[in-house]
Write a structure and sequence with these properties.
This protein has about 90 residues and is mostly helical. It has a domain at about 1-60. The protein has helices spanning about 1-20, 25-35, 40-50. It starts with a helix and ends in a 41-residue tail after the last helix.
Length: about 90
């Protein structure tokens, strides 16, 4: 009896780990949002599932649209990085 309970706990922990690591980011946000609506702490869930809290509920506070794109480097020929390859024969 105890062996089956312990195996069940181990399988549940492995499933949780696989969900937090290998699910697409959009699915993880949906899981966090669904569980937070059912009374779980959204900040802890967001940290566990490696997402930002408040994403997915439509409040607009996730900050995804507030950050500007990084400036592109100028078109100066010396500003580009060149990787030199040395061929050994």
């Amino acid at each position: 009896m105890w062996q089956q309970i312990i195996v069940g706990v181990i399988v549940a922990a492995a499933l949780l780990h696989a969900c937090t690591k290998y699910l697409p980011a959009a699915w993880r946000r949906r899981v966090v949002h669904a569980l937070s609506r059912r009374g779980f702490d959204q900040d802890k869930l967001a940290k566990l599932f490696k997402t930002q809290s408040s994403c997915g509920d439509g409040c607009g506070s996730c900050g995804s649209c507030d950050t500007p794109a990084p400036p592109s480097p100028p078109d100066i020929p010396g500003a580009r990085r060149v990787i030199k390859l040395h061929v050994q024969r």
